[in-house]
Amino acid sequence: MASSQQAKSSKSAHGLLTGLAVAACLLAGLPGARAQAPSKQPPAPPRAAPQAVPGFWDPRRRPERPDLSRLTVIRFLTETDYPPFNYTGADGNPAGFNVDLARSLCEEVKVTCTVQMRRFETLVDALTSNRGDAIIASMAVSPQLRARVDFTDPYYRVPARFASRKDAVMPEIRPEYLEGKKVGVIAGSAHEAYLKAMFTDAELHGYPNDDALRAGLRKGEVDLIFGDAISLAFWINGTDSGDCCAFSGGPFVESRFFGEGIGIAVRKGNDVLRQALNWALFRVWEKGRYTDLWLRYFSVSPF
User: Fold this and answer.
1) Alpha-carbon torsion 26, 30, 35, 39, what sign?
2) Same domain, 115 and 233
3) Which structural domain range is residue 135 located in?
4) How far is CA 81 from CA 7, 11, 43, 209, in A?
5) pLDDT per 10-residue tile (average), the chain, 303 residues
6) How far apart are CA 219 and CA 205, in angstroms?
7) Keywords, A to Z (predicted)?
């Protein structure tokens, strides 16, 4: 798995979940990377309107309840410092979206659950050497990782979106609309590759990192920027943006550029645990608990 810096360069209403499910499947960064974290601090309270929660499960494909009799404990491994997905809480214990989801899954399966925090780059080795049973750490599914571990179904994806200054918001974006427009993007990223393939008449400006990219938009160096929508949502609605900017157009979801999604990794061949987690993920979503958890951590909409 890539390092934290590499990852950054890659990375229902219950009824409404169903409608958004597959059609708004989200992106997940470059293969072999974790998803991009919105910030190094838990997000500030949003100023945006309440969002609709995306769904990642098809209610028509209800998984059968597997044999859970052989499961007595699940030792989850997660990242040490990747808020709001995983971080150390005020009480010194693991916290975050991934941690709370892991605990919900264990409640559904009715087994004891432990959560151990480790540096991201050590997680796969810890799993394969039996120091844990499952990795829940915003890990992007990739062919390279599939050679080492097995994955559950995706439990979230990350859309890509354009952002512009508030005085130049575009309600819809198509390739022909950006002819001659200056568009900022992280150089070498999947987002840049997508723009080069699909928005051939835009004038692309590569930036080395998120801070430089967003500063370029604030200062008017570019007309729009394109990147990870979850990260952009927190920036747009946080203090760092200075209330300068907003999303333009809707989400872009092509998995050919942005990966298969974010899954829970288990050791190769551990189908008992993988199937149990897939069943539990569906049940947590079906009961509305996934929606509650998503809104607790992501109350600004990336869609």
Assistant:
1) negative
2) no
3) 73-157+260-297
4) 13, 16, 14, 19
5) 38 36 37 50 45 73 88 96 92 96 96 96 97 96 95 91 96 96 97 97 97 97 95 91 94 86 96 96 95 85 72
6) 14
7) Signal
